[in-house]
Amino acid sequence: MDPVRSAGASADGRRLPLKTMAAAPSGIRGWHSIFFEPFAVLLRHRRMLFRTSLADVRARIAASALGWIWIGLYPLLFLGAYALVYLYVFQVRFPAYGGRDYVVLIFCGLVPFLWFSESLAVGTGSVVANGNLIKNTLFPIELVPAKSVLAAQATFAVGIVMVVGALAATGKLSAWVTLLPLLWFFQFLLTVGVVWATSSLCVFVRDLQQIIGVCLLLLMMVSPIAFPAEAVPENLRGWMGLNPLYYLITCYQDVLINGRQPANLLPLGIISFAAFFVGHAIFSRLKGVFADYV
Question: For 39, 132, 195, 198, which has the most beta carbons within 10 A of its beta carbon?
Fold first, then answer.
């Protein structure tokens, strides 16, 4: 059968709307679809994506006894635990950072990590949990993992406001803070790409959710959250480069607490775009058989 159906018929003989025909994947994907389709699907449904993400945040808040307070309390509890362990138990000290600056350094790395970890933890199982949307033409299934990423950034937004406010109050806020929107964009691309990949693979390997939980715990320990990248021995820095969060966290630390141009901005951008395109390619390749496994 000719893969191009001029009559607009599907494989089972049903006629497809022109819009569906245009969006249907062809046998041979060109460069245009590889690089523009991931952005197109998000921009085309941006209003729906925003509304459903906001509804997810409100539903989560409504189910919590503390309500909106929990969004700000959540990162502060993590920060308190880190500060207690590293400052008072291990008594970690770095010459470039006093006690207060060290706490801010931890927060600069912890806030983006919490967004990434929550997105991955929730988003990995999102396709399986929303199997009823797999054949829904009004709400493309690609939006489900992306919705998890957007909803998870509520904690990130509150945390960043806290960090910027603390730096402004102490007079240590630099002009490099204007790069925060760019860092947010790179992190969004990186996280959505990873979640697209893991959520599609989770359809076939349900244990992936448990594996992701273990991986996130390991990433928390090896990522430069509670220590500056300069403290890593030279013979281990090459290994640190294998962790994409290394580039992400050091960029946030540079523009916030260090007040300088982020040294890893270019590698972060390359990794983020690569993860976004590869994640979407994996998702697009596998979504055709989701219905057989969910």
Answer: 195
List Cβ neighbours of 101 (8 Å cut-off, separation of 6 or more): 172, 257
Q: Is residue 172 part of a domain?
A: yes
Residue 118 contacts residue 152 (beta carbons within 8 Å): yes
Domain of residue 268 covers 31-292
DSSP 203: T
240-267 as b/e, with b when 16 or more CB fall inside 10 Å? beeebbbbbbbbbbbbbbbeeebebbeb
Give strand ranges (E) for the chain. Answer: none
Instruction: Determine, yes or no, domain membership for 41.
Output: yes
Residue 221 lies in a domain: yes
Report how far residue 232's alpha carbon sits from residue 265's, in angstroms, rounded to the nearest whole number. 19
Number of domains composing the chain: 1
What are the tokens at 256? 């916030």
What's the rounded Cα separation, in Å, for the pair 286 and 193? 14
The secondary structure of the chain in percent helix, strand, coil, rounded to multiples of 5, reads 70, 0, 25
Please name every residue paired with 94 in a beta bridge, in sequence order, or none if there are none. 97
25: Cβ contacts below 8 Å, ≥ 6 apart: 33, 284, 288
Q: Give per-residue pLDDT as tens, 71-128.
A: 888 888 988 998 888 888 888 888 888 888 999 999 999 999 999 999 999 999 999 9
User: Phi, psi at residue 271, to the nearest 5°?
Assistant: -65, -40
Structural domain contains residue 202:
yes
C-alpha dihedral (142, 145, 150, 154), degrees to nearest 10: 160
